[in-house]
Amino acid sequence: MVHFLVWNGQLGVQIFFVVSGFLITSITLRRWGQLSNVNMRSFYLFRLARIAPLLLLLLVILTGLHFANVPRFIVQAKTGGIGRAVLAALTFHVNVLEARHGYLPANWDVLWSLSVEEMFYLFFPLACRVFGRSKLFILMLVTFVALGAPGRTLFAHGNEIWSEYCYLGGMEGIAWGCLTAIVVSRIRFSRSALLALNISGTTVVVLSLIFSWQAYRGWLGKTGLNFTLLGLGTAMFIAGTSQVQWKSPRFLRPLLRIGQYSYEVYLTHMFVVFALFTLFLDLGKPMGLVSVLFATAILFAAFLGAAVAHLYSEPMNRYLRRRWRGAQGETAVVVEVVPVTVSEG
Questions:
Q1: What is the pLDDT at residue 342?
Q2: For the segment 28-68, what is each residue's pLDDT rounded down to a tens digit?
Q3: How far is CA 17 from each of CA 45, 207, 245, 332, rounded to the nearest angstrom?
Q4: b or e along 126-164 (b: 16 or more beta carbons within 10 Å of the residue's beta carbon)?
Q5: Which class for 267: exposed (0-12), middle (13-18), buried (19 or more C-beta within 10 A)?
Q6: Residues 123-182: tens digit of each pLDDT
Q7: For FRET with 118, which of 98, 238, 279, 292 sits at 20 to 30 Å CA-CA?
Q8: Residue 328: its pLDDT value, please?
Q9: Are the CB atoms for 239 and 287 separated by under 8 Å?
Q10: Is the alpha carbon torsion for 280, 107, 60, 325 positive or negative?
């Protein structure tokens, strides 16, 4: 149970990558009609308004905690020092820095997945403009899917950090999501097909999470195909639910909110985790309370993320978009999201 609760974070990030690819591609199709029509300037400004304010604030806070010598927030010289960490966060290569010099403190470490995401944001509109009208775009996405497993194994050259944090591994999940968005925009599935996709996708994802440790140690893990299978299952589930006109009941609204504030939750949740982990140590490491502390961490992380979103991220996002929208003369469509880590819009 402890392993299932604590050590499946990497699988959760891979699920998020699929969701993110689907959302960004779907939003692009809805906003501009077809991929090749994407307005690159608008795309970059929308992404910047959503991501930059909280990222910059977090870097300021983490840098301050480093110079205040607060335990668990000090960036060691062996990992490049505080200046190198800030540079890596601002230039989308925290994952590269950690693969070369070792893990950064946990609040910095979460930025590795954002580095992969930002690389996707950087090149996605350019690829849409160049290849969006041809089958080469599909071929490019399929190639990223095919390179995911080798990226985690063969190309990692035994570097355990890079095997999990590499660009190709993350881009595989994103490519699954992009392909799913393109497919569901062109094909209307029957009810039986949607049901089959839902059941199959749910089964693959659930089994991947429950038996993740066995998969890591077995053939799937050694070949890197465990994440490929998880990506496929997630893509099937998304395809099966995207065309269903189902509205969640009221008691599930808190989960929807967590998804909408998932970017804020992701960037701030380690503050909550550290506080509860300290409490766990002070109590003498009571293993029987792990599930309770886990649920408490989710609850408080959700509250913290929601507070940051309401008081800072959303106001900044709206402010920046209003300013840039006025300069562009373009109406922005704001789409709230329910992914694992980052809400798009």
A1: 40
A2: 999 999 999 999 999 999 999 999 999 999 999 999 999 99
A3: 21, 19, 24, 24
A4: ebbbebbeeeebeeebeebbebbbbbbbebbeeeebbbb
A5: buried
A6: 999 999 999 888 999 999 999 999 999 999 999 999 999 999 999 999 999 999 999 999
A7: 238
A8: 55
A9: no
A10: negative
DSSP state of 71: T
C-beta separation of 132 from 34 below 8 A: yes
For the record, the structure tokens of 330 come out as 């373009």
Q: What tokens does 272 get?
A: 């909550």
Burial label, 331 (beta-carbon count in 10 A; 0-12, 13-18, 19+)? exposed
What whole-number percentage of the chain has pLDDT above 70?
Answer: 92
Domain boundaries, the chain: 12-244
Q: Report residue 153: phi and psi, to 5°.
A: -120, -75
Question: For the whole prediction, is pTM greater than 0.85?
Answer: yes
Q: Residue 106 in contact with residue 270, Cβ under 8 Å?
A: yes
CB 102 within 8 A of CB 165: no
Q: Which residues contact 112 (CB under 8 A, 6 or more apart)?
A: 94, 95, 98, 165
